[in-house]
């Protein structure tokens, strides 16, 4: 199979084109800009359309319209731009429209910095805009996984009629790694008979989230809640690394999972029985992965580029059955594997002493 | 006797929820009749605003999407780019279009987006109960300009059709009113022209319709029509402000 | 003999009286009894003078009016 050496952002864009994405609406923002540049350059060749929107607010609403018309559509941005998209995402979730959104996260809050960050975790996994809804959030940690998960994202969006976010950062977006574009098995996806395409030959379709009747409002919420539960049951994804005999567990996703993996390897050389659980879906959070290990784990270390956000989900997933500690850097800074291991030994001195 | 006027089939049977005398209903009819006469019911997709017309999906016998406040031109852009051979229009009020959604409409016009925007201007926020709009006239009393709109504090009204007419991508811009039978006929013609231009692929078309809000203006429906004539029509000039094909 | 006739859908009518005012022949007025929604609906009070000009229908905000007119030549 042919290998390509691609930058992460370009890999996302090419994977989207290969997944049948024919419409892209975006607004430039570092460090995600290569995605919209790639789409501007490559969509016309496949009879696709790229529109540079006047703002992220407009870009996400263009996605709303196109998804409502039944076409595969994507946008990409970085943290401040994603904040501007929250209104649209709430409407997209409420109208159950399949839209894929890429967030190449940068350090915040405010204008922040361009460095890698995972500080948008709460925003991505807890809804983000107004109302009670969820995005499916995918967190790749290699360029190959950026490709695979981007292709999956379109299927998941269509299958569940739900917005899907691919969350990475500037390191993954700028990193070059070899990738292959595998033939994928076609998933059975429901027909988009709800789309507004002109009512010729069928009853008219309307896409709206507005109701002044509270009874209807509650019925909608219950329907969405049931959908989110079914997604949570069926779509949790995670990777376990050196967990078979692990007494301790590092938890990390995306960029920090790469670092934590190196830290686990260093610890193992010292004889410390620590493994890694890498969430691939941030929502639904891979609770089942934690459950399968719960009896054997004496302590967890959540490695994050934030003040500690995923750590709350780790505590919930483990019912606080063992101590959960944080190892973090912020504002665009990244810990070295040595730093992670040092922090691990600091919070779990018994682990090192047991060797 | 021959039936010469009946309710268009492009409107559903649902009774309008608008207040008595609100001229949204007239404008709905004009849009619907044009859709029917141009045989567009099977290929039209309408985009609705937030505001009094936010429920108008119930009334048009076509596919429709409900946009977030002010975003209808962006949503319509997404639909039109996805399905370029369909007919796409937005129906928006003055708060939706001229305030929170001014970027969306200006840039849809600038792109020459091949859609039509029907802009209903009644110089007030109706749905939220009569607050100042970007098109509220100087001196006009609203619940957030209770002493009358004072330009030194609250600035001046925006004349949207004049602004849109300056944009190169706009192919047709008209300013009409529904205060009288004659002007209603003119309004219908302007909407027809805009729709035909979209069908011909000429670019962005915009019809501003001066409308009433008897409830929040605090007048009878008949008085509101008079007030519209005497005040709004003096501030917002009627006519075809741009016709790229004629130029 | 009337040249035209007006039928107001009394369930749709909200009694705004725009049609009553706009009618050049003054053939319409409002009912004394309200419709089920509580509105005093418009009705044809002087049917003989209706010309079927349809100005009332053009101005009706609730699209509640139908008009018939004598075919020309009759």
From TrEMBL, chain A:
Pfam families: PFOR_II, POR_N. InterPro entries: 2-oxoacid_oxidoreductase, PFOR_II, Pyrv_Fd/Flavodoxin_OxRdtase_N, THDP-binding, Transketo_C/PFOR_II. The keyword Oxidoreductase applies. Residues 14-192 form the Pyruvate flavodoxin/ferredoxin oxidoreductase pyrimidine binding domain. It comes from Desulforamulus putei DSM 12395. Keywords: Oxidoreductase. It comes from the Bacteria. This is 2-oxoglutarate ferredoxin oxidoreductase subunit alpha. PANTHER family: SUBUNIT OF PYRUVATE:FLAVODOXIN OXIDOREDUCTASE, SUBUNIT OF PYRUVATE:FLAVODOXIN OXIDOREDUCTASE-RELATED. Gene3D superfamilies: 3.40.50.920, 3.40.50.970. Residues 246-340 form the Pyruvate:ferredoxin oxidoreductase core domain. GO terms for molecular function: oxidoreductase activity. The keyword Iron-sulfur does not apply. CDD domains: TPP_PYR_PFOR_IOR-alpha_like.
Automatic annotation (TrEMBL), chain B:
Pfam families: TPP_enzyme_C. Keywords: Oxidoreductase. Gene3D superfamilies: 3.40.50.970. Residues 57-208 form the Thiamine pyrophosphate enzyme TPP-binding domain. SUPFAM superfamilies: Thiamin diphosphate-binding fold (THDP-binding) (SSF52518). GO terms for biological process: cellular respiration. GO terms for molecular function: oxidoreductase activity, acting on the aldehyde or oxo group of donors, iron-sulfur protein as acceptor; thiamine pyrophosphate binding. It comes from the Bacteria. The keyword Oxidoreductase applies. This is 2-oxoglutarate ferredoxin oxidoreductase subunit beta. It comes from Desulforamulus putei DSM 12395.
UniProtKB/TrEMBL annotation, chain C:
Residues 4-33, 41-70 form the 4Fe-4S ferredoxin-type domain. InterPro entries: 4Fe4S_Fe-S-bd, 4Fe4S_Fe_S_CS. Pfam families: Fer4_7. Keywords: Iron, Iron-sulfur, Metal-binding. SUPFAM superfamilies: 4Fe-4S ferredoxins. GO terms for molecular function: iron-sulfur cluster binding; metal ion binding. This is 2-oxoglutarate ferredoxin oxidoreductase subunit delta. It comes from Desulforamulus putei DSM 12395. The lineage of its organism: Bacteria, Bacillati, Bacillota, Clostridia, Eubacteriales.
